[in-house]
Amino acid sequence: QVALDVRMYLRDECKEAVALIKDVISALCHVAEQHQHTIMPGYTHLQRAQPVTFAHHLLAYGMMLARDISRLNDAAKRMNLSPLGAAALAGTTHPIDRYVTAEALGFDGYSLNSMDAVSDRDHCVELCADLSILMMHLSRLSEELILWSSWEFKFIELSDQFTTGSSIMPQKKNSDMAELVRGKTGRVYGDLTTLLVMLKGLPLAYNKDMQEDKEAVFDAFDTAKLCLTVYAPMIATMKVNEDNMLAAAKGGFINATDLADYLAKKGVPFRTAYKLTGQIVADCAKSGKALEDLTLDEYKVYSDVFDDGLYDAISLKNCVARRVSAGGAAPANLKAQFEYLRGVIND
Question: Rounded to whole angstroms, how far apart are CA atoms 335 and 347?
Fold first, then answer.
């Protein structure tokens, strides 16, 4: 009966968690729709790399959360087999119909091995693993929100509802809710580890150790749902500083790849174009200039291949707009992403 009740309880928990994840995806899509042409630097190694749009960046997290929904739904489906009727471990001599009770309780069927039915806690482990991945995604986004809120970035400003001041520094506005979500992630990881360690040496069938399953998996769901409840309104109410994003995108030479591509399209071998662009970037860095600041005559010092078309090639707006390969950063690709995520939300 306990094994049965846990499955029924977790089945409902999965539905609640999925609904909350959909709220976060919806909030991400709402903000992304408003910033389909807001240019910001994309990063690798936390270094400015290439220009993207804020919408494209946010929807990357939408895709992560969509996979979290898929994982939880899959786990819930695998879990949806009734253990009722397995008795202590060997079944019963009474003429029961396990299918009738399974159907009455909303299960897709019943476990085919009575020993497995009473000792299986895979569903608890799998759901904690799924929630750990979900929390990892929220933690990664939290880290970005914390960075973006800092004076060093100032890309966004979180609502006062989700920040706090300092006990002694009146100028502070700390991203406490995002920090708490980041911190709670470790707690869910701990719940997963608890289950794995508890189960790793248990022989069949039931052992009293298994009563530890409930505290861990219940806590994992409670923690994840609490974080999700905070997240949707935190995203929906944040202010986006488009000018700061664009100013950051103009620094760091994030259009250097496009300059090299421009040379390659002019017939310069890419290895040569890469080296030449690197030299131009190094010289600009020394002189405090951006690639757009150099005159055509200055460019021709490096190569006669350069013409007026280079400025069109390295325009940040054009750099983004030309990333039209499927899934790329071009605003033209956002429609497919929105349609996919809306399908996930409405499923």
Answer: 18
Classify the C-alpha dihedral 70-73-79-81 as positive or negative. Answer: negative
Helical ranges in 202-324 per DSSP H = 212-236, 242-250, 256-265, 270-287, 296-302, 309-314, 316-321
Among residues 45, 94, 167, 325, the one annotated as catalytic is 45
What is the pTM assigned to this prediction?
A: 0.94
Question: Residue 35 catalytic?
Answer: no
Q: Which of 101, 236, 117, 218 is nearest to 177 (CA)?
A: 236
Least Cα distance to 65 among 210, 231, 290 occurs for: 231
Catalytically annotated residue among 35, 166, 175, 325: 166
Render pLDDT for 316-331 as a digit per residue (tens, 0 to 9). 999 999 999 999 999 9
**pLDDT single digits (tens) 272-324:** 999 999 999 999 999 999 999 999 999 999 999 999 999 999 999 999 999 99
